[in-house]
Amino acid sequence: MIAVLGLAIGVVVGLFVQPSVPDAVVPYLPIAVVAAVDAVFGGVRAMLDGIFDDKVFVVSFLSNVVVAALIVFLGDQLGVGSQLSTGVVVVLGIRIFSNAAAIRRHVFRA
Amino acid sequence: MEEDKDQDKSSEQLPDEEVVEPAAAEESAVEPVTVPEAADVDDPSDEPSAGPAEPVQPAGSAQSTAPAEPPSDARRRLKAALWPPRLSRGQLVVALLLFSLGLALAIQVRSTNDHSQLRGARQEDLVRILDELDSRQQRLQQEKAQLEQSLTQLENSSNQAKEAQEQTRQKTAELGVLAGTVTATGPGIVLTVDDPQGQVKADMLLDTLQELRAAGAEAIQINDVRVVAGTYFTDSSVGGVQIDGRSVSQPFRFTVVGNPQDLTPALNIPGGVVRTLEKQQARATITEQQKVVVDALADPKTLQYAKPAAK
């Protein structure tokens, strides 16, 4: 519950405060957000499975974000930034869908 | 179920550069096994509502919890995790992470909506946009050059028209001087013929006029009659002289615009006008002036028969 509140408060703060993002971070922000959403879905699924562990969640969250940013950074350095970003988004999207399907089976049994 | 969970990469120490959350939580909480009570109706949660991928999504069965059916473990866990808010350390850390996630999400959405597509555009897109802008600017420069050229042409033609107009005006003035319709001024002489005995006839005046014209006189008036191309001299039957049908009285006063150094010797040559006049007992006086004014005007005659011949 507190975690859900944290998410809501973050959205509200981001919408109304409009903090400025440093330019070095701007290219990685979308991919990082997608990776973090993937981690969140995985965490919810793990919680429904009864094996949620917050330490694991924290580590997976951070590592997801960092690895996604690293991939984008590497792609930019190699000149294939847009293609690699698309690939990362596709992979994370597949994971998000599968996690969402598992969550749905848990909750709705369907 | 069908894919390994997200929690597999358990403990890697990655150097985080993106999210500045040093919240490496030590193990503290084993929370998902608490089963506080067995409630009957649990709300469909707010988190996992993003699964439109499979065709078996029961859209109508969102409230499909029949009262006779005991809630499953997953639902109990979900409800337990949602409602009694426990202030554990793990919850706070996860809340912190989710806070940063929501923040980044909102920032990204807002920046994507706010700024134009330039903000999120990649380098090659920016280069392409820049190229397009460059070529567009080039086209606009060319158009500008063309417009400036046409502007210059128009100004030139306007200047030419103005110049032609000026020339026409000047020509009109010169022709007006010749035709006697405008006043004339300039250096010249004033010749006064005083003839107390009335010996000066029209032919004498005509000789004088011819002499003046031969010497380069440009505008002439006698007393108040302007001398033009059609001027004629007649002897009046009652004595005296008529010019253009108007009687002129003594003394005859020629006001002549022309070069005085030419006009005066032309009148004074031996056997010339002045000598002839003196033989007739008339007295001629010549005065050179730097500025004489010929202000008598002649009525322009409308040509009735003569037409300009076509070239």
From TrEMBL, chain A:
Domain of life of the source: Bacteria
Record key words, sorted: Cell membrane, Membrane, Transmembrane, Transmembrane helix
Pfam family, any one: DUF1290
Lipid bilayer topology: Multi-pass membrane protein
Chief location: membrane
Ranges annotated as spanning the membrane: 24-44, 56-74, 80-103
Localisation per UniProt entry: Cell membrane
Family as reported in the entry's similarity comment: Belongs to the sbp family.
Name under which the protein is recorded: Small basic family protein
Organism (species): Kitasatospora kazusensis
